[in-house]
Every structure is written in structure tokens, then in C-alpha cells.
Write a structure and sequence with these properties.
Length: about 650
């Protein structure tokens, strides 16, 4: 059974809100928009929890079959009311689960094409494979992928892709919707809406596999696109973006004429979820004043991992100005609840306790019990799930209590120390890099390890823990480990710059650094703008008896980290700077089952990309005899050898003091 809240009340309230703000109600065009973003191949639900009636409730949120159920409900509601309706995806459908590791873009294409999506932004993780596979994905879905600030004409794989477009124009007659292809022959008796895409202009730095696609300034491209559309006579303009909530707000403050931004990339679940024991991560449907001081842009985003869906109504006057913008995000829950994260049979709520939770949910606007679409669930279970279950491999540990990963300390209810998963992974990579087998290849004893929060995709869930939980889900990117000698001053610059870059609310926090055998403290001095690095210390003892020593600016330390961050990608620029002339780094992959080292000569900057130059041959991760996911293998080996019962480290790695 699906416990849908009355959609009637929301729709009527939004319509009345629009009418109340316009002196000419008949002139207001109301558009209902449903939206998702950063779904990251989470076809199955995500194990989660919330608070109800003062108690912790362990449940599941989302998954594609639940998204489909709710999206269909929204679409049917709009149809019954004859409302104009769009369903948009803010990008990053790819990556993030074992399904993607095995099926790459094919499963996303099949399932997303069943959702009646109107358009999707091009996300950075859509470039995780190569442009040939991206081109196949874009060509096989039944909705367009949008990016107005790119030029793919020189890319061999994407140059002829007609489903990768800068914008779309839709003509509405109530709920009837038609695509307009000729901007010189616009219908005069229908409401017109343009949807254009904006992607990261530093994409080449974040996603090295961009081929020969060129990326252009977001602000300039957005303004140029809006001006062109308005010159053609289209005044109602929506941007679907994958640039992060704080950047969306910045774009809205610098570009005239965007009415609505539907965003992604920062995984921001906008709205106040404190009623569920969660965070308030910012205003849903925030209105931002344009630089002309007259227009305003409504900004929304819907979280991450297919757990929630947003819906709003935006009203336009005859000039295309926003006169109302209202709505909310809704978390989509199952109806089985447990008292403990392991979710054992004896920990399940009884009927009376379940009913109390159901009644609580029915009173809350931002959470809904939602059935999975039966056909899509069956498709996943029959066609895809058996191979995934088989790929998980052997059990390596038990996890008594769920261990939480959060990118930035203080977000989503975490404390000032943030993730408990990231330090464990870094500790595992420190351990692995210092084993005799690895030291024999690198010739270096590692002092500490570092990891960027965005490379970690899951919590460590309670219960049985298998190899695939690490290699297929938590660390799915198949990065190889690097051991890099670098001065302490570069480490301090790295920590300072990456933490500072994540201070603005809604910023993309994937670059946030954690470590193993190293700790630091950072204090925010001006809320969301500035801070200072208080201390960085290296651990020379053991986990049971840690000994901390202040980092030496002039000392060269050997650090273990994955090759993506070691190259300076995603804002880890000080490591590029340290290697642009010469590097003592060694990259590590298995060739024919034997651990092999690849000596790095230096890193060059080619356009906006960093290129690693090797002393000899480079690792060929596409070769059948080469296994490059040594970042995941390091964690697997560490858990199997040292942590058969997985618990957080005994010491804290990060202390992040927020400004009060």
C-alpha cells in the first residue's frame, strides 16, 4: 500500500499563492516542476534512519522504483488538473553502485527511460568511463541531455550526438506539451518554456575523461543563452544545472532572466528536515535577486542517491518574471521499520509501533511512505540483481553498528569531526602502503594517508561486510594508489585551500580532506566565507597509543593517496604544484597478478587538464591483465587482516570548528 498525502492540498495552495501575488491572476502561467539529481545508480533503496515520536527509526529511502511511483503520481495529478508539467534531472545519474560497475550506463538508460523525464543536465560523473560509452548512453535514452556551455564538435565520439543539446523549448496548452524545434516559428497561442543546461566550466579538472569536449564560462554562457532565447520571444526560462547549490545561487545573482534553477552536484537536500532529526540545509525554492535588481531566480535541489524528489510550482507573469515559487522536497520511505541498524528480524517494529510511525509520517509534509513500482522492481530483480549479488565476493568482516560517512563535518547531523568512514579508509591505505610487499615496490615508508571525501560513496552498513561492499560500492572508481613524497608546507596548503573551498553553504564538498595517521584542526572565522588552519599533526604511534608531532613545513613526507587526488584534481592543486617540475611519486597497479610500480616524472597542465608523465610506461587500466583498483584493494586487505570487526578509529582525524 502507498500512503500518499493528498496532492490536492498542495496544488491548490500553490495556485492560490500565485494568484495572491499577481494583480492579474489570468495572466499568470503556472508550471509544476518535479525534479531529482545525483541519483548515482542507486536503483535499490538506501538504508537510512530518521526520528519519529522521539525514537530512532531505521528504514530505507528511495530507489528508482519508488522514484518512479512518485513521479508517476505527480504526473497523473498534473494531468487531472490540466497543469503544465516538467520532470527534470539535475545530472550525475552515473556511478555510485555495484550495478553501475557491472552494467555501466546501460541500466541507467533502461530505467531512466521509463520515468518520463523531460531533460537532464550533464553531470561530471557522466564522464567517468569514456566518451564512446557516454555517447551510447545519451543516444539510447528517450530524453535529452542538456549543456549550453560546452562544445563537443571536435570530440570524435560526441560530435554527431543530436540528443546532447544546449536547450529545449516546450509549448504548453495546459497539460498538453509539445517540443518546439524551430525558434523562428514559435506558436503564438501557447505558453513557452525554455530549459537550458549548465555544467561545470572546470569539468576537465574534475573529470579527466572529457576527451576533446570544450567547456566555457558558466555565467557568460548562461547570459548569452538567456539573451538569445528572449530575443526569439521566449520569456519563461529554466536552467537545469550540475554545478552545486552555492554556485547556482551565485549564477542567479550574476545572470539576468533565469526564472528557475533546478540544480545538482552538491547533493543538497534543501528544506527543513529537523522534524525528522535531520538538518536544515537551506531554503527550498530560495528566491535570489538578479543583478538588474528587478528580476529574481528561484533555486532548488533535491539531495542525493534517489532518496527524495522535489516538486514546486513556479508562476510567470506575461513578461516572464517569477511571481511565485513554492514547493518542497519529499523523502520516499518504505514501511518496514527497525530499532537497530543491523535490521535483524527480532529488531523489527511490531504492528503497534509501526502504526505509530505511519501516523507520524502522515502528519509530516517532507516524508512519505511510497510503494516501489512493481514492474521496475521485478525488472531489477530478474535482469540485473543476480549478477550483482554474485559479484560481491567473500565476507571479510562484521560491522556491529553502522559507520557514517558525511563529506563535510557538521552536515546532515554529524559532529565537528565529520566522517567516521573516511579516516578508516585512509588508515587502511596507510597500512597497505606500509606492508612489505608494497614497500618493496615503492622503496618508501609512508608517513600518513589522505583521501578526498567525494571518492567515498557509501556508509559502512551494519551486518555482514563483503569485498564488494568496498570495491563495488564504497570505492567504485577503480583508482590506483599512489605514494608521493611532498613537503609539509604543501600538505598544509592543500588542507587549507580545500577546506576553505567547501565553506559556502551548498558548496560541493567532494574535495574535503580526511586522513589516516594525520589530524588537523580548522576554525571558521567568518561563517561560510573564511577560516584558518589551526594545526596539522602527524601520528607516529599506534591507534591504541597515538603520539602526535607537529608537521614540519620543510620536511618531505611520503603520503599514500589515490591517483586522482595525487594528480591535483578536484581542487587538490597544491599537489600538482609540487609535481609540475619533478615528482618522486610511484603509482601502483596489479599486472598479471603482480603488484607493479610506475614512476612518475612530473605532471603537466594541458589546457585545463593535468597530465601525468611517467619515466617509462604508464599503467594501462583498460588492459585485461591489469587491475587498477588498488585503492579499494588496500581497504579490503586492511579489513581482512586487521579489522574483522569494523569499528571507527579510536582517534579523531578532523576537527572543524564552525563559526557561531
Amino acid at each position: 500500500m502507498t500512503f500518499f498525502k493528498p496532492l490536492t492540498a498542495l496544488s491548490v495552495a500553490l495556485i492560490l499563492a500565485g494568484c495572491s501575488q499577481s494583480s492579474q491572476p489570468d495572466a499568470v502561467f503556472n508550471l509544476t516542476v518535479a525534479h531529482i539529481n545525483d541519483t548515482h545508480s542507486n536503483f535499490d533503496p538506501v538504508k537510512s534512519s530518521f526520528e519519529a515520536n522521539g525514537n530512532k527509526v531505521y528504514n530505507e529511502f528511495g530507489g528508482y522504483p519508488r522514484l518512479l511511483t512518485m513521479a508517476d503520481e505527480y504526473q497523473q495529478d498534473a494531468k487531472q488538473r490540466n497543469d503544465s508539467f516538467l520532470f527534470l534531472h539535475g545530472g550525475d545519474a552515473w556511478q555510485g553502485s555495484a550495478y553501475f560497475k557491472l552494467n555501466q550506463g546501460a541500466m541507467n538508460a533502461e530505467l531512466l527511460s521509463k520515468m518520463n523525464i523531460d531533460a537532464m543536465a550533464l553531470g561530471n560523473h557522466e564522464f567517468d568511463l569514456n566518451n564512446k560509452k557516454l555517447n551510447k548512453f545519451i543516444g539510447s535514452i528517450n530524453f535529452p541531455v542538456l549543456a549550453a556551455n560546452i562544445d563537443a564538435s571536435e570530440d570524435a565520439d560526441l560530435k554527431d550526438q543530436t540528443n546532447l543539446r544546449p536547450f529545449m523549448v516546450y509549448a504548453f496548452d495546459g497539460n498538453q506539451k509539445a517540443v518546439v524545434d524551430d525558434l523562428d516559428k514559435l506558436p503564438t497561442d501557447k505558453d513557452l518554456v525554455a530549459v537550458f543546461g549548465i555544467v561545470l566550466d572546470d569539468m576537465a579538472n574534475i573529470s579527466p575523461n572529457t576527451g576533446d569536449v570544450q567547456f566555457f564560462n558558466m555565467v557568460e554562457s548562461a547570459q548569452t543563452t538567456v539573451d538569445m532565447l528572449k530575443a526569439k520571444g521566449i520569456n519563461n526560462i529554466v536552467a537545469v544545472t550540475h554545478i552545486g547549490n552555492s554556485v547556482d545561487v551565485d549564477i542567479a545573482s550574476k545572470v539576468n532572466g533565469i526564472d528557475l534553477i533546478v540544480g545538482g552536484h552538491s547533493h543538497t537536500l534543501l528544506g527543513d528536515f529537523t522534524n525528522l532529526g535531520m538538518n536544515n540545509d537551506g531554503i527550498y525554492a530560495q528566491l535570489v535577486r538578479n543583478p538588474n535588481g528587478v528580476g529574481q531566480t528561484c533555486v532548488v535541489q533535491a539531495g542525493q542517491y534517489a532518496q527524495a524528489i522535489g516538486r514546486l510550482q513556479v508562476g510567470f507573469n506575461q513578461q516572464g518574471d517569477v511571481v511565485n515559487c513554492n514547493g518542497r522536497n519529499t523523502l520516499l520511505s518504505n514501511d518496514e521499520f527497525y530499532t537497530q541498524p543491523a535490521r535483524q528480524k527480532n529488531e523489527k517494529f511490531d504492528a503497534a509501533a509501526t502504526q505509530r510511525v505511519v501516523e507520524f509520517i502522515e502528519q509530516e509534509d517532507n516524508i512519505e511512505i511510497t510503494d516501489e513500482d512493481a514492474n521496475m522492481r521485478n525488472l531489477i530483480n530478474v535482469k540485473y540483481k543476480p549478477a550483482v549479488d554474485k559479484a560481491y565476493g567473500k565476507t571479510i568482516a562484521q560491522v556491529p553498528v553502522e559507520i557514517i560517512h558525511e563529506r563535510r563535518p557538521g552536515d546532515r547531523g554529524t559532529d565537528k569531526h565529520g566522517s567516521d568512514v573516511a579516516p578508516l579508509i585512509a588508515e587502511g591505505q596507510y597500512y597497505w602502503a606500509n606492508t612489505a610487499a608494497v614497500q618493496k615496490v615503492t622503496g618508501m615508508k609512508v608517513d600518513f594517508a589522505l583521501i578526498g571525501a567525494g571518492g567515498i560513496r557509501t556508509n559502512i552498513e551494519a551486518g555482514e561486510y563483503r569485498e564488494g561492499n568496498v570495491s563495488l560500492e564504497m570505492l567504485p572508481f577503480s583508482n590506483f594508489m599512489s605514494v608521493l613524497p611532498v613537503k609539509g608546507s604543501a600538505i598544509k596548503a592543500l588542507i587549507d585551500s580545500t577546506v576553505t573551498a567547501t565553506l559556502p553553504e551548498g558548496s560541493h564538498a567532494g574535495k574535503f580532506p580526511y586522513g589516516g595517521h594525520i589530524r588537523y584542526s580548522f576554525t571558521e572565522t567568518k561563517a561560510q566565507e573564511a577560516g584558518k588552519l589551526d594545526a596539522v599533526e602527524i601520528m607516529t604511534g599506534t591507534e591504541a597509543n597515538p603520539v602526535w608531532t607537529k608537521i614540519d613545513n620543510n620536511k618531505v613526507y611520503n603520503i599514500a593517496l589515490n591517483n586522482y587526488n595525487a594528480t591535483g584534481n578536484d581542487g587538490w592543486t597544491p599537489l600538482y604544484e609540487a609535481q609540475k617540475n619533478s615528482s618522486g611519486r610511484v603509482d601502483l597497479a596489479y599486472v598479471d597478478g603482480k603488484l607493479t610500480g610506475y614512476d612518475v616524472k612530473n605532471i603537466a597542465k594541458v589546457g585545463n587538464k593535468y597530465k601525468v608523465n611517467y619515466q617509462g610506461a604508464a599503467p594501462n587500466c583498460k588492459a585485461a591483465n591489469t587491475v587498477c583498483n588498488t585503492d579499494a584493494q588496500a581497504m579490503i586487505d586492511y579489513i581482512a587482516a586487521e579489522r574483522q570487526t569494523v569499528m571507527p578509529l579510536n582517534y579523531e582525524v578532523v576537527t572543524f570548528n564552525r563559526a557561531q
